[in-house]
């Protein structure tokens, strides 16, 4: 029983810290925008994929948020929390991602592709 309790505690810790980039698994295509983070810059991009590539090409960038409503790409050094309260169509991810899926854009996905921070 004690081993199970420790594993659950460790797993819970990883879930909390994964947003700040301390876990080894990249968070990709998360719904919402980075909040309470170290902001680097923003500019216009045609897609979330271009925003990801912009982050990968920008030295201190570790996180990005793409806002499809106005094609705005925001780059961040850190991402302390993610919220979809004010931007439900935003897509956030880490620079370690290979690609970005825009499932919250009408016509892009045929299935519900809600992602969890613990996956």
Keywords:
119 residues; alpha+beta; Hepatocyte Growth Factor; five-stranded antiparallel β-sheet; two-stranded antiparallel ribbon; 2 helices; globular; disordered N terminus
What's the SSE blueprint?
Layout: H1 2-17, E1 30-31, E2 33-35, E3 39-44, H2 48-56, E4 63-67, E5 72-76, E6 81-83, E7 91-94
- Number of helical segments? 2
**Strands of the largest sheet, in order across it?**
1-7-4-5-3
Strand runs, count: 7
Please give the domain count: 1
Indicate the proportion of strand residues. 15-25%
On the 0 to 100 scale, the average pLDDT is 76
Low-confidence stretches: 1-18, 107-112
Between the first and last Cα atoms, what is the distance in angstroms? Answer: 24 Å
Structural class: alpha+beta
Give the name of the CATH superfamily.
Hepatocyte Growth Factor
Largest pleated sheet = 5 strands, antiparallel
Name of the level-1 CATH class: Alpha Beta
Residues in helix, % = 10-25%
Can you describe this structure in just a few lines?
This protein is of the alpha+beta class. It has helices spanning 2-17, 48-56; strands at residues 30-31, 33-35, 39-44, 63-67, 72-76, 81-83, 91-94. The chain is built from 2 helices and 7 strands; from the N terminus they run αβββαββββ.
3D structure, described in words:
- The chain is α+β, with helices and mostly antiparallel strands.
- The chain has one domain: Hepatocyte Growth Factor (3-Layer(bba) Sandwich), CATH 3.50.4.10.
- The protein has two helices and seven strands, in the order αβββαββββ.
- The strands form two sheets. It has a five-stranded antiparallel beta sheet, covered by helices on one side. A two-stranded antiparallel ribbon has the order 2-6.
- Strand 4 and strand 5 form a beta hairpin.
- The N terminus is likely disordered.
């Amino acid at each position: 029983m004690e081993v199970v309790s420790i594993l659950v505690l460790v797993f819970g810790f990883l879930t909390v810290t994964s947003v700040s980039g301390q876990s080894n698994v990249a968070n990709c295509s998360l719904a919402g925008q980075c909040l309470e983070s170290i902001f680097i810059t923003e500019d216009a991009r045609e897609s979330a994929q271009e925003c990801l590539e912009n982050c990968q090409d920008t030295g201190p960038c570790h996180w990005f948020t793409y806002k499809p409503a106005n094609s705005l790409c925001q780059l961040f050094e850190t991402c302390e929390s993610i919220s979809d309260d004010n931007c439900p169509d935003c897509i956030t991810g880490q620079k370690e991602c290979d690609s970005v899926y825009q499932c919250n854009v009408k016509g892009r996905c045929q299935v519900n592709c809600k992602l969890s921070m613990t996956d």
